[in-house]
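Checklist before submission:
- one chain only
- standard amino acids only
- sequence pasted in full

Submission:
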Amino acid sequence: MEIISDKENLEKLKQKIKKGGSEKIHVLADFDKTLTKAFVNNEQQPTVIAQIRSGNYLTPDYPARAHALFEKYHPIEIDPKISRQEKIKQMEEWWTSHANLLVECGLTREIMKKVAKESPIYYREGTLEMIDFLHENNIPLVIMSAGPGDMISDYLQKEGKLYNNVHIIAYLYKFDKSGKVTGIKEPIIHSMNKHETAVKNFPVFKHIKDRKNVILLGDSLEDVGMAEGFDYENLIKIGFLNENKEEMLPYFKERYDVILADDASMSFVNGLLHEIIAK
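Returned file contents:
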């Protein structure tokens, strides 16, 4: 299901971006439930970090304790009525508590690689083709995620899609010499502070500073904040509305130019990219 908030405005943005050429474009995307599916066979798919719960990778008590944190904080994360400031506070608590739990339960870099090898994630139909198309046209794909950067890299590497035009901005763990996780590095990027995560503070900025036409892909109200702090000229915001459609649609219409509902494929995005990057 495809909903366009303002067709006339979208058409104007498309024409401006097309006129600028492919060398002026970059794509800025969330990872979990944006590049990947939210549901498979009507079952909600775990995020990258939640894949660790699906196998016997850590101490036996880990899955239940991690799930308890999810049950406590996820309803806060998706509630549109809770203020951003309160959500930021709660998400920082969640990410920090979970990092401490992973330290306690014995996560290592080798376990992360093992999880990526054994526990599949399901990309939206057309996602991998999109990554290929961006690579072929030398267009940067900046993935800004509240997930663990090392594991996102592992999953993309598994598909052979960790190209030199793919850049990941995500939180990273601290490791000791043996590869055991000892904590989480600052800044902690979580689902509610992407508006504070200035791209200019990361190495990728040199690749995109002159690429001021942006295609943004997200699945939450907060994901539109990924472009804040970047001096863009034209911005098309595409939101994947995966759940609570009736409640969330009015909020998505306020924030996104295009809403792709019902766990849609990447076909609209690929069509848009082919249209504005026509040779």
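Reviewer check: The chain has a mean pLDDT of 93.
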